[in-house]
Design a protein that fits this description.
Radius of gyration: 22 Å
Number of helices: 12
Largest sheet: 10 strands, mixed
Structural class: alpha/beta
Number of strands: 10
């Protein structure tokens, strides 16, 4: 009897040791250990702004601190690769975007992670179009002005982006492909530094999300030329869509960016479910809904399975666009 008890005890210990520590402890997760919210872009961009809003509230709900860690580069690929290698213990969140988790896998010859297999989806925060902006002193007031000026300039007008492969970059490349007008792409390491140069006039123009560009449009530092959604935005009713600007080839133009939260693949399902529930509740609060809509974002409410299906469709969609347009990483 004693021998059988010892064997059962040894077997149980062996099995527990072979399982991820977080799985064995998921019932009392989190333990108070600080969490990391990894943002694969520099401070000041859309992903960073949303992360800071969510992290503060999530830390309060979970009774622990949530630390923002910005690791920009390669359109979100550098930080995402770091996140994919983090321990799947529920203490690392990754801010995922249309670029880092849908576009880059087709744009770059090789990235160090699989956007679908290396992560588990937690929450789709929302979707938002990008808006074409110029600085307040720019002579360009309409999309036709921009296109005419780019045709007349050797190499075309310069356009900043948060990095190669971001929605800002793809919006530019898709517009160039459909219209036949050339532009010069100027990639930055994030929206923050890119939009500052757009404001300062160091670049001719920029596509950026309404989250980042909106406040600068409202303050008068930037002029909105067109939005990339299929319909005008309630937050910018006077700004036409690219499709309705009357430029040949752009009648069906539409680019919609999105923001999500992922964890490393292998994170225990109970932990993922808890994170999904808590963040979903945070995002559903009236103040957060108001902020998201004020940013020009359309809030989303999908299950983790629905997010995975949405992401799969996005990966396939942008792979086709990149191949058809012949877009290559700089």
């Amino acid at each position: 009897m004693q021998r059988r008890t010892l064997i059962r005890t040894a077997l149980a210990t062996s099995l527990a040791a072979g399982l991820p520590a977080a799985f064995a402890q998921s019932g009392n997760w989190p333990t108070g250990k600080a969490m990391t919210y990894l943002v694969p872009f520099p401070a000041g961009g859309t992903t960073d702004v949303l992360a800071r809003l969510i992290a503060q509230k999530l830390g309060t709900v979970l009774g622990t601190s949530v630390i923002i860690d910005n690791k920009g580069g390669a359109g979100g690929s550098v930080g995402s690769e770091v996140g994919s290698r983090a321990a799947p213990d529920g203490y690392t969140l990754i801010g995922g975007t249309i670029s880092s988790h849908a576009i880059n896998v087709s744009l770059y010859p090789k990235i160090g992670y699989d956007p679908q297999k290396s992560f588990a989806p937690v929450t789709l925060i929302g979707t938002n179009p990008v808006v074409l902006v110029v600085n307040q002193a720019s002579p360009y007031k309409t999309l036709k002005d921009v296109m005419a000026a780019s045709k007349a300039k050797s190499g075309g007008l310069s356009s900043a982006s948060a990095g190669t492969g971001t929605s800002q970059h793809l919006a530019l490349e898709l517009m160039a492909f459909k219209s036949g007008v050339k532009f010069t792409h100027i990639p930055y390491k994030g929206s923050g530094p890119a939009i500052q140069d757009a404001i300062g006039g160091q670049v001719d123009m920029m596509f950026d999300t309404t989250v980042v560009a909106g406040p600068h449009i409202q303050s008068g530092k930037l002029r909105a030329i067109a939005v990339t959604s299929s319909k005008r935005l309630a937050s910018m009713p006077d700004v036409p869509t690219v499709a309705e600007s009357g430029v040949p080839g752009l009648q069906d133009f539409e680019v919609v960016s999105w923001q999500a939260i992922f964890v490393p693949a292998g994170t225990p399902v109970p932990v993922v479910d808890r994170l999904h529930t808590e963040i979903r509740t945070i995002l559903a609060a009236p103040d957060m809904q108001e902020k998201l809509k004020g940013f020009g974002m359309e809030p989303a409410d999908l299950s983790t399975k629905q997010i995975a299906a949405f992401q799969k469709a996005e990966v396939e969609k942008w792979a086709q666009v990149i191949k058809a347009a012949g877009i290559k990483a700089d």
